[in-house]
Amino acid sequence: MFGLSTTIPDASTRHRRAQWKAAAPQLVPVTVDGSAYLVPRRPAKAYERGLLRPEG
Fold it and tell me: What single DSSP character describes residue 11?
């Protein structure tokens, strides 16, 4: 029991993390200064209000 570097709960957490896959963010069209851009859905309002600037 002593001297083990990984406990059972730690091993199961690592296994769960290894199974997780990241998904690409959903892109929505936003018009800024007359130009249309595809931006992630969550910060779209910030782009429309001019708080963020789209690249490109």
Answer: H
